[in-house]
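Service request form, structural biology core

Requester: graduate student, group of Dr. S.
Request type: structure prediction, single chain
Budget code: on file
Notes: please return the result as structure tokens.

Sequence provided:
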Amino acid sequence: MRRFRFERWCRWAVAHRHHRLPGDGERGGNPVELAVTLPAILLLLFASIQVAAVFVARSTALNAAQSGVNAQRLHEAAPNAGAERATKFLNQAGDWLVGWKNPGPDCVTTATDVTCTVTGRALSVVPGVTFSVRQTAHGTVERWTAP
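Core staff response, request fulfilled:
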């Protein structure tokens, strides 16, 4: 009985064995295809990381400028309170925005408005490529007015 089952299984296995077709000579083609497409895949990966770094740097600069405006717009604020607050924010934010210390955050106050500008460069993932970042925030100065 066992021999009969084994023989029947052998006949089934031989009958259903995968036979190579005449045009099926592409054996080992996958590593070549991968070697051709891998540089494009890596380029897209680094480009997407660079785009993300630019957007994080823009967000960091805008948040620093908004923080400076919020500090400078207070009633009877010190003349450089906004620039100090923006500098403190950028020191704590990390290195997503580089080169911001050279000009430093610039806060200009008029009688009714405050404008803070933060400039720098985004962190570069791709060598030799730099993206400049400049963000400005505006606000009104708190003041007493006659009714």
